[in-house]
Hints:
This protein is of the alpha+beta class.
Amino acid sequence: MEAPLSYLLQFGNLNQQQTEFIYSMAEELKIRKDEYFSGAGKIPRHLQQVGFVVEGIIRICYHNNEGEDITKYFIDKNHLIANYQYFEANTEASEYLQAVTDCKLIVFSKQNCENISNTVVGWDSIQNKMIQKFLLQKLERRSILLEQDGTTRYLTFLEKFPTLVNLVPLAYIASYLGITPSSLSRIRKNIR
């Protein structure tokens, strides 16, 4: 529980009693490779809708109009995972959150998030800062890729996510970079 605590403390101060209460509201969830944390077309109501990745990699993806599987971004360990806009608005999600590797998460239900908010003084401020960081990271990861050619996108990916390249299928990386798998293979061959 040290990693989630370190993450929380980036956004505000919590005493021992508050920390213990927050952890009492959490549950550990293990997701096997290729299973879903949440799915498109569903309203996030269940336990595993807001969490923290302790181990593993999750990808956020969707299917476009042609039925292609598109990877929007990856969330690796020590990062928040959520379908916040859908969770808070109680609307259907348009994205899938899928385990790329076996994952271990610390998760909270919407009710437990509300219990924390009603009990821990200053929690709303901490939560808002976490959400802002989560959304900013989402934007940064995508916006960098929009302005670069395929080779530069791949090199940027390697720089930002050095451990993911050996853990994530190349088809997912190619989709994330907005290139075909064969283009990614050529790029990888040319930079070796």
